[in-house]
Amino acid sequence: MQPIILASASRHRAAILEQAGVTFAQIASQLDERAIEAPLEGADVLPEDRAEILAEAKAADVSASNPGHWVIGCDQILSLDGDVLHKPQDMEQARRRLLTLSGKTHMLHSAVVLVRDGQTVWRHVSPCAMKMRHLDPGFVGRHLADVGEAALTSVGAYQIEGRGAHLFESIEGDLFSIIGLPLLPLLEALRKEGVIDG
Q1: pLDDT digits (tens, 9 = 90+) for 86-113
Q2: How far apart are CA 171 and CA 132, in angstroms?
Q3: Do 115 and 56 meet the contact criterion of CB atoms below 8 Å apart?
Q4: How many CB atoms lie within 10 A of CB 163?
């Protein structure tokens, strides 16, 4: 198996790869995501393209100091009615985020790219439609009290693989992509490139 690096600090993404039996090192990119996104604000850039740009930038950053490695870059963008939303900065923002998403369908665009020696070899974006049920403000407060600071680690202020499942009426898309790593397309790309057996 050729050396693989996951260019992300996410324990959830790492767990997905580990559970799939992929051997990898984890080296997070130190790029400032907001600085990369700044030129995109106000431009006619689709959320899925924005996710891909960020994923590619992170992978290229880690690839620059790790020649000969296959670097997996990931990013996830949440959009609601065309507006891009970022991770909440505090619990009050998390509360407002959940109330904003309540009763609506938002999109999660999960991008993954493969970079080797600074060259992007493959890219993919998985769109997921997430329909939240109508949430009572009291329920939102209790939910956030239960999950705590974990709510601040995702753009939607939820983890679908945990208690966040109670927030939803329906989803369209695979669970891996919702968590943040479109695993099945990635595994196929790694097999095609001869990085993993298959």
Answers
A1: 889 999 999 999 999 999 999 999 999 9
A2: 9
A3: yes
A4: 14
| Residue 189 DSSP SS3 | helix
Q: Is residue 181 part of a domain?
A: yes
Amino acid at residue number 57: A
Residue among 134, 162, 131 at smallest CA distance from 146: 162
For residue 198, being part of any structural domain is answered with no
75 annotated active-site: yes
Non-local CB neighbours of 161 within 8 Å, separated by 6+ positions: 12, 175, 179
What is the rounded CA–CA span in Å between residue 195 and residue 76? 24
Please state the length of the chain. Answer: 198
- 197, part of any domain: no
Question: In terms of Cα–Cα distance, which of 72, 39, 76 is closest to 58?
Answer: 72
Q: By residue range, what is the domain housing residue 153? A: 4-192
Separation CA 136–CA 35 (nearest Å): 36
What's the total number of domains in the chain?
Answer: 1
Whole-prediction pTM: 0.91
Check 32, 49, 75, 117 and give the catalytic one: 75
* CATH (domain of 46): 3.90.950.10
Residue 62 lies in a domain: yes
